[in-house]
Amino acid sequence: MADGPSIDLEASIATGVRSYLPQERGTDYRISEDESIRSICALLARFLGVLLSNADGWSRYAWVDAISPCTADQSSHDSLLLTGLVIWMGDRSKEYKEPFSALLQISDNSPTTLNYILHFADADRGLGKCPYGTSHDFPYVPVERWLFTFVPGV
What we know:
Layout: H1 4-20, H2 35-52, E1 63-76, E2 79-89, E3 95-106, E4 114-122, E5 146-150
Antiparallel strand pairs: 1-2, 2-3, 3-4, 4-5
Helix pairs in contact: 1-2
């Protein structure tokens, strides 16, 4: 996307990833309590909502509410692999959750440049099949086919 709000969100996500990557995490580390990851997830939720607003198969009445983190792995000095569950509202005001995976890579040359691959929703399961209050086995049971995939410039 090339519009202003998404560029601002991309830059904010890059800044968040840049500050998260060098942090030391102890044996008592809990991802759900990590303010850096929670901040990145909040920005990713907004960004995903912007991307979905133009995607085929997404209702204009639905919206992304939040992303609850499951795992955060530093795959290299400049990359973060984040998995989680997207909490979203359907067009009948019902809450659902869907699997989410993000590979976020920052640039060594620019503090605000972000490369990403965002995956959302299990294509085999279908959208809106898992109400918010029910259990979900992702990421322990991986998604084979994603319903939505977003990369820069596409």
